[in-house]
Amino acid sequence: MSYILNRVFSMMLTLFLISAITFAVTNILPGDVAMMIMGTQSNPEALAGLRETLGLNDPLLMQYGRWIGGMLTGDWGSSLVFKEPIAPLLLQKMTASGLLVLFSMTIALACAVPLGVWAAVHANRWQDTAASSTAMLGVSLPDFFWGIMLILLFARGLGWLPSSGFVDPADDLGAAIRHALLPSLALGLGLMAHLTRMTRATMTGILKQEFIRVARAKGLNESTVVWRYGLANAVGPVMTVAGLQVGYLFGSIIVIESLFNYTGMGWLTYQALLNRDIPLIQASVFVIAAVVMLANLLVDLLYAVVDPRIRLS
Amino acid sequence: MAGDQTPLVSIDKLRVEFRGEDGPIVGVEDISFSIAPGETVCVVGESGSGKSVTSLSLMRLVEFGGGRITSGRLGFSLNGKQIDLAQADTQTMQAIRGDEIGMIFQEPMTSLNPVFTIERQMTDGLRVHRGQSRSAARARALELLQQVRIPEPEQRLKQYPHELSGGMRQRVVIAMAMACEPRLLIADEPTTALDVTIQAEILALIDRLKRETGMAVLFITHDMAVVAQMADRVVVMYRGNLVEEGPVERIFADPQEEYTRKLLAAVPRLGEMRGKSAPEPMRLVGETASNAPVTPIDVDPKPLLQVHNLTTRYPVKGGLFRRTIANVHAVEDVSFDIPRGQTLALVGESGCGKSSCGRSILRLSEPTSGEVLLDQTDILALSSRDLRRRAWRDMQMVFQDPFASLNPYMRLRDQVTEPIRNFGIHTGSAVEDRVSELFDRVELPRAFMSRFPHELSGGQRQRIAIARALAVNPKLIIADEAVSALDVSVQAQVLNLMMELQAELGISYLFISHDMAVVERVAHRVGVMYLGRLVEIGSRQQIFENPQHSYTKSLLSAVPVADPTKRNIHDDLNFRPIPSPVFPLGYKSKPSTYDEVAPAHLVLQNEVGLDAAPE
Predict the structure, then answer these.
(1) pLDDT under 50 in chain B at which residues?
(2) Helix (H, G, I), strand (E, B) or coil at B101
(3) Taking phi first (over 0 means left), then psi (-120 to 50 degrees means alpha), and beta for anything else, what does residue B135 get?
(4) Contact check, Cβ <8 Å, A209/B110
(5) Touching check for B562 and chain A: CB below 8 Å?
(6) Structural domain of A61
(7) Which of A144, B44, B475, B614 has the largest count of CB atoms under 10 Å?
(8) If one looks up domain B1-100+183-267 in CATH, what number appears?
(9) Which chain B positions have a beta carbon within 8 Å of A224's beta carbon?
(10) What is the pLDDT of residues B209-223, one digit of tens each?
(11) Do the Cβ atoms of A217 and B103 come within 8 Å?
(12) Given CB atoms, is B95 within the 8 Å cutoff of chain A?
């Protein structure tokens, strides 16, 4: 329990630092919120009036205080581009992207773990080389390349899946899944490569351990030895890497969502940046950081479940 | 025991090869011996002798390490028939492993799967081989834990391996191997990683289980003392070949082969120094040069090193702000002197504080309080600059693991040169001369100077570590388990080298070791440590011939003697687990008070938890 409190406390500290940095950076950037709202041709007096009402003439620290206060109380302000309150907008887009993250992670793990174990069992033989080369292929080609290939194959060629767009799972779950599948695959391929290498490395180490030899000496069959005795020890490390990849995913999502015209967080952040929608930029960065950190906290808590040696105190 | 019955195991002309980069490497060639039902056969040999390869071949586990049985028979009597395990298919082997043949390994810390409970690991063999239900297997596991005398067995079943001590884990591993009542137990160095008192317990346990169940034991070890205690018959191996085989008494009393004689000669036997006041070199057959008796040098009555009330505590951090929440009392009010040209041995089991004591003297771990005087210089008062320049020139350290203490990227010449340059002892061509002289001194060919550490054997590497320590002409060398990782014959050579250097250069040693038999040969004075305190200190004769403290006595009684006619590991001994050295902040520990039972023979009077009831 004190471990969780400890982690939550340090998470809050990090979030505070992130909020301060984003706030500072977005204020240093050229561009003026009032001008963004009223347009470049607007009347200088009206601009000055708007600046005054928005509080843009106040000291930075005061502006920051007002902003963070709003964030904490649920008043996240309105987007300048979308002319909508930010909080519900972010929630909706986060759901869309959450679907992508979940799918791509599932696809990546489902492929990477068996492939990595297979490579480790046949370490330094042709199977290992084959698995490593496959993994290397995934890593060395960028996500958007896979995206384009997938669109050409499954959407244009075979016509199985839609090439772009987003459907809210609340409206039509089947359609939502179909739309999420291709972008998830494109993201998952890059992820899979990392996770395969990680699984292989972890399992190679584990299979050399004495308890594996002891398990064999007990007369257990080889699949029990590898998939139960071995893999149970690899779950923790692999999960940790997968958790760290969530951060990397939110980076890749910007490209992939734009490519597939999938209107999630990545697409939203991109729009916000293009249009210097400063309140939206600040809020999105903040939310993405929080989600990534929560994912990692979750992984660390799960680690304690799969590995009894980790004591959460 | 053994006799006219058909043998349980008959290994015939076994040859095992491993895949190497340049073609196959022979692991063992032409090994033949047999094991009768109920018999203990010890296979003994130094590292690389192929003893483990032999036992792994019998289980056909050698294939998982890249080995291949290329020829020979592994006869095993199964249900009255002889089958050849070398030809057996995977299914047959899986049925035999864990059922007919149980196996235990060296490292109790890694032999158990860390993420499964003890119950799961103890029962899965029973469920596979006997098809038992979960509850039946659990009942059997409980019975087994009682048989290996593990306290509170119900509790243990629910626990994970990390919650058990090393000795406890090895008992679990043994219980696991015994689950299906195998007719053969293979024990591959089962006590090498354990402290001597726990070793004694485990050896007694294996011996008792053997007598109770009538199973045969194939015992793999490098330790001649263990062989003497355990074996009915002995198989001596060297570089993949069988050297000699015979009943244990015959092997020890009348070894036929040169190698066996050498091996036995190099083994120190506890008690053989009785009545001798000065240390003596180890016996080395056929190497008369380094076998010359060491002439004791005149002892300067002024002590070189004086340690007074040395206390070292390590903080235990915890909580939200990583504050110190408790202290490990690693060294607790320890005092001793080392005269010039003499050796003080610090002995004790893991965690007793002997290494921390050595490190504290050098201030590699900063002591909490106390006084360390080297030639009247107060070491603890030195600035870090003076500590480096002066103290570390006079005191050097040799560590246990010569793999880890040499830099793998540096040539040996440079590693020995480094301290000479750092301390500005020689300059120019004198440096090169000094390095050559040091290589001669530790009896390494000068051609080795341009080599890298991985090109040397363990013993040669340790010689380099000694040469590096000698480079600065130290007055004191702290040798922390310096010969523990070496094979016995190499260990004997390195010990003799250290004793020669002492006689010629008048160096003092603080010899930190867990090996009582070695200490008996090399030390002038001996200090026994327990839970951070020095519980007894005296001359070697006083400690070994007239131990006074109950801990010293139990420690000595646990050491196996390398003599089959003196079996001292009888029944289950139950040594108390060592209590925790972690104390709350602000805990006031009492100063150590000693009783001088004889001149310079001190025995601790404090209560150290030895007589307290176990937890």
Answers:
(1) 1-3, 288-291, 612-615
(2) strand
(3) alpha
(4) yes
(5) no
(6) 2-73
(7) B44
(8) 3.40.50.300
(9) 124
(10) 899 899 999 999 999
(11) yes
(12) yes
